[in-house]
User: Fold this.
Amino acid sequence: MEYDLIVNSEKTLVEAKIQDREITLQKEEKPLTASFERVSDHQILLNINGTQLNAYVGGGKDVKTIIIDGRTYYIRDADSLAQAPAGKKGFKGGAKTVCAPMPAMVISILAKEGQMVEKGQKLVIVSAMKMETSLFAPFDGKVTKINAKEGDKVMPTDILVDIEQKKEPAEETNE
Amino acid sequence: MEYDLIVNSEKTLVEAKIQDREITLQKEEKPLTASFERVSDHQILLNINGTQLNAYVGGGKDVKTIIIDGRTYYIRDADSLAQAPAGKKGFKGGAKTVCAPMPAMVISILAKEGQMVEKGQKLVIVSAMKMETSLFAPFDGKVTKINAKEGDKVMPTDILVDIEQKKEPAEETNE
Amino acid sequence: MFKKILIANRGEIAVRVMNTCKDMGIKTVAVYSEADSKAAHVLFADEAVLLGPSEPAQSYLNMDKVIKAARDTGAVAIHPGYGFLSENHEFAKRCEQEGIVFIGPSSDVIRDLGDKITSRKIMKKGNVPVTPGLLGSETDIAILYQVADEIGYPVLVKATAGGGGKGIRVVNAKDELEEAVASASREAQNAFGNSEVYIEKFFTRARHVEFQVLADDFGNTIHLYERECSVQRRHQKIIEETPCLVLTDELRKEMGQAAVRAAKAASYKNAGTVEFLLDENNRFYFLEINTRLQVEHPITEMTLGLDLVRHQIEIAAGNPLSLKQEDIHPRGHSIECRIYAEDPENGFMPSPGKITFLKEPSGPGIRNDAGVYQGVEVPVDYDPILSKLVTYAETRDQAIAKMIKALKDYIVLGVKTPMSFLCDVLESKAFKEGQVFTDFIDVHFSDWKSNAEMIDAAVIAYIADELAGRAAPALNAKQTGVPTPWETLGNWKMTKVG
Amino acid sequence: MFKKILIANRGEIAVRVMNTCKDMGIKTVAVYSEADSKAAHVLFADEAVLLGPSEPAQSYLNMDKVIKAARDTGAVAIHPGYGFLSENHEFAKRCEQEGIVFIGPSSDVIRDLGDKITSRKIMKKGNVPVTPGLLGSETDIAILYQVADEIGYPVLVKATAGGGGKGIRVVNAKDELEEAVASASREAQNAFGNSEVYIEKFFTRARHVEFQVLADDFGNTIHLYERECSVQRRHQKIIEETPCLVLTDELRKEMGQAAVRAAKAASYKNAGTVEFLLDENNRFYFLEINTRLQVEHPITEMTLGLDLVRHQIEIAAGNPLSLKQEDIHPRGHSIECRIYAEDPENGFMPSPGKITFLKEPSGPGIRNDAGVYQGVEVPVDYDPILSKLVTYAETRDQAIAKMIKALKDYIVLGVKTPMSFLCDVLESKAFKEGQVFTDFIDVHFSDWKSNAEMIDAAVIAYIADELAGRAAPALNAKQTGVPTPWETLGNWKMTKVG
Assistant:
C-alpha cells in the first residue's frame, strides 16, 4: 500500500506491505519490518528487529501526534491535505494570512490596511497565558485587510491580517 | 423517583428528588441534598453541604462499584436482581450451589454425590494465584451433583457442587 | 558495566529492576508467559521474550527457557527479582556454567542459605542465635509429631525452600499437623518446585525485624539498618516500616552486627536480608537469610537515599562497594503497604481481573512501584501484587498520615484491593502505638469488614452515574468486584487452614 | 494547629500545598475561576469556592473575593502558593486585619522585600552584596537612558514587583531600551497589578544560585542550602538542581551565612529564598528575597528529606522551628524540570488545550508534582505549568540519567510539552559538565529543533494506528498540537523581544 504522508512538515512517500500484525516499509537500502500490537487507545507496542518501542498516538483523522522515545512526530495524509479548503491550506507553503497562534488577546496592531510590509516585520502583538507574543509578516507584501482590533479576544483559526504577497514563489507541487 | 437498591448486600429503599444537577435523598431525619458533576467516565464530583467528595464509579448496568474516601460500595438495582435467572439468584439468601470464587484449578473434591453435608463443611479445595482456597457448604444438606473433578480449570460462574438444602428457611421476600 | 540484563521476573519487581537498568544505561530484556503478553514489565523492556504457557513451570520457573532467552538476546547478566528462580541455587549454578552473571550471591551460598536447615547450622557456627526446631527436613509424620511435642505447640510447618509466606502453616494442636504438612508441601512444590518441610517453634507474639546487608567481592560487608515487618496476613508481610519502634540504639547496633556476622559466616555476596524474630523480651533469633532483593527494600532506599538495585548490579559487575558503614545514617521514617488484587473481607482471597480504571497516588514523599496499568489484565496465575506503595516523612506519625492519604487517593476499579483495610490498620490505636506483632491482623482485624459510613453519598453517586451518562459503553460487570453467589458460602479460614 | 486552610492559588502548587494539609489533618478550601471549575486543585480540595471569571483580576488576584471565601468557609489561614497574591503585601495586610493567618512573612516584610529597591537598601545595610543599578523605580525614559549608560549595557529592565520571569527585559543596546521599558511595565501591570520598573546591571555569564531559609517567631533563622537555577528561558527557570556544582564548601558556607544575614536584616519569618547572582569569578550579589515558597522547593525537600510546606504551616501557627542548622545535612543530588504546556520549537510559546492522554513517570527517585489530569483543559488564562518533575539519586550523573528516563516516560497528548527539549539539554555536554549560566539556553539551544531520528518507527505507528482501530472515537484534531498555518509565519523572538 502507498502512503503519501507529511511527517513534521516533510512530504514522505511510503510504500508499505501489510500482513496481519506486521508492517514492512520498502526503503531504498533494505526493507524495514515491524510487528505491532495495540496496548490501548493511545499506545501501540512496536517491535522492530527485536527492539520494542512504545508509540503513543493522539489526534484524529486529520493529523496524528506520535510520541516515541520522548520525541514527537506529527504525521498527516498529504491527500487529505489537498482536499482541505484553500484558505487553510498554507500548512506547508504559500501562507497568505496572519492568524492568532492560540486563544489570546490582541494587545497592539502595528500595521494599517494598504501598508506595504516586509517579511519578518512585526504586525500584531497578542497576549496569552500572561505572555506577550509577536506575529510577523510571512513575506513581503501588502496588507489588504485587518480583521481585529486592540482588546479583541481571538482564537487560533481567526485570521487577523490578510496580506497580498508581493511576488509569488514557485509553488511546491511535487516535493 | 424511587430506587430499590441493594447496597453492600443490604436492601435500601431510596426516595430521591432529581433537579438538573442536584439530587435530594428523602431521609427520615431530614432531606440530604447533593449537587454533582461528572469529571470523567469514572469520576463524579459530589458536593454535599459544601463538602466535596470524589466518587469513582466502575461496573456496568448490573452492579456499580463506587469508591468514596477510600471505601468501596457495591450498589445494584434490586429490581434487576429479581429478573435474574433463578440459578444465579442466591446473592442474598438461599444459595443452593457451590461456585468457584475465581478462575482457579480444582485441587481436591472432598464430597461425593448423595453425601449429607453440614454447614461449613469443606467441600472443594481450589488453587489460584498460588494460594489454596477452600469452599464450604453454605448450609446443611445433601450433595446432589458434583460438576468438577481434580485438575479442572474452573471459572467464577461455574457451579462446582449442587446441594439440596435440608430444611428451607423462610425466604426473605420483603426485607 | 553490563550492556544488557535479562530480568527473570514479572510485575512490579521486574519494572522496578528495569528502572535502575535504564538509569544506568543498561538495555533490558523482559521474559513473559502467554498470560503476560501485555504486562507492564513487557511494555517497559527494550526486548521481550515469550517463555511459554502461563503455568510457572512452563515459563517463569523454566530454567532452560530463561537461559535460552538470555543467550538469544545477548544478555550478559540476569536479575532474578524475588520469588520464581531468585532463590533457586540450581538456576544460579546454571548461570555460572553458562557464563551469565547471576545478580545475587553464588549458587553455593544460595543452596546453603536456601535450605533453612543448613543455614541454621551456619548461623549457629557463626554465633548468631536461631529459633528452636528441627535440624533437618522430614517426611515421616511420626517424627514430626514427636518433634512438635518436644518444642511444644504452636509450631510452624515451613518449607525448607522459598519464602514469601508460601508453604508455611501454623499448627496450634496435634490434630492439625498432618493436614498442614500435606498442604504446605503441596504449596511449596507448586511455588518453589521443592516439597520439603520442617518444623520450628512458633512465637505467637513476636516481631519480625530484618536487616538489609550488602557485601562485595572485596570483603566489604555492611548492614543498611532494619525493617520492621510484623504486620502479616497468611504469613505474608503487608505493612513494613523503618525504623523499628522498639529497637533501642544498643539493640539496633547489636542486631546490625549480628546481621553482618551472619552474612560473613555464609560468605555472602551482593544484597541480602537477615531476618530475625524479636520476642517480647527483646531476644532475637535468626530466622533466615533471603538471598535476594526483598519486596520491602524501598523503605530502606527512602530513609537512606540510595538505590539497592544499583548496588546489586555494581557488586555483580565486580565493583567494590561505594558505601562505608560509618556513612550510613538513616533519616526520617518510611512505610510500605503491599497492594494486592485481593479481598480483605474474604480472607484476602485473590481478585484477578481487568483493571478498568487506575489512579495512582502521587506527591511529596509518595512512591508507588507499580507493575500494572489501566486496562491490563491481572492474571490468575501469579502472586496478585499490583504495587508497593511507599511513603516517607520526617516522623512515623507523618509517614502514617501520608500513607492513609495515599491509600484514599489510590483508585483501582476492576479488581478488589485492600485500601480500606490498610487504612483501618494504620488508623488503629494498636498500630499507631507500635503494638505490632506477627499476630497483629489475627488479633485486631480477624473479622474486619469495611465501614460503610458514606452510604448516602454512595447512593447519590449511583444515581448521578445513572443520570449523567458516561461517554464509554458500560463495562463488563463481571470484572468489577461484583458480589457473586459464593460470597455467602465460604468461610475463608486462610490464616489457620488445616 | 489550623483546622482549615484556604489555598489562594491554582494548579500544581495548590495541589502541592493541599497534600501537606491533608498529611496534617487540616481541611482544605480551594478557590477557582470559571475556567478552572474542573481543575485538579478544585477536585482535590475538601471545599471549593468560585471566585469569578477567568481573568486573574476578577478571580485569583481579587483580594476581596479571596478574603470572602475564607470568611464564608471558616478558613483560619491562607496559603498563597507562588505567583498571584503570594507576594502582595496589601493582601497580607488585609489578612492581618481580618484576623486570618497569612502563611508567609508579615505584610511589612513583604512590602519591603517585594520592592526590589527597598530590599536592596536593606541588604546593603545588612552587609549583603547587591548588583549595581538604579536605587529607585523610574518612569522618565531620559533618566533610564542615563543610568543605563552609567552601568553599561547590557542592562536589565525589571519590574520592582513580582517575579517568575515576568516584567523583565534584557536590553543589549540603547535603541532597545524604550520599547523594553514599555513592554515590561505592561507585563508587570498585568501580572502583578504594578507597572513600576527599574534597571540594574545584567550579567551575561552568571549563575543564579539561591538559598532556602526558614525563620520562626522565636529568632531561629536557618538556611537549607542552595539551589542552582541557572538554566532559564525567557528569564524563567526551567531546570533547577541541588547541590550547585561550582560551590566549594567555603563558598557554600559563606553564601549560607549571607542568606541567614539577609533574612535577619529583613526581620524575615517563615520560608523564603535568598537569590544570588554568582559571577564567573565566584563573586555573589544579592538579587532579591522571594517571600514565598519557590516553584523549585522540592529539590531541597529531596536532598534534606523534609517537607517545606509543613514547616511553613508550623511556623505560621506560631510553633518554634523543629530543625537546627547543625542537623541540616544535604544528601545526594536532586534535579527539577518544569513541565509547561509550551512549544520549545517556537520560542516556548504556550500551548493550551485539552490533555487527551496523560501518563506520568513513576518509580524510585521520581516525584512529579502535577496540577493536571487526563481529560482536563489547560486554560489559556494562566501560567501553563503542568507539573514539576523531580528526580533524586546518589550522584548528579545518576539524577540526570533518571530525569532523562522520566522525561521519556512522561507522555502528554493534547498539548505540546518540552520533554524532548529538556532531554537534549540534559544530555548536552555543557550541562553534563555543569557549564550552566543564565544564558545557557540562548548560547546552546537558541534554534533547537526536535531530532526526528525515529521517523520510520513513527510512520509505522501511524499506519498501525490506522489499521488497528481504536475503541474510542477519534479525538478532536484541533486539540492535539496540530501544526497550524501560523507556524510558518512567526519568528518567536521571545528571549530578546524588543
Summary: Residues 249-265 of chain C form the longest helix (17 residues).
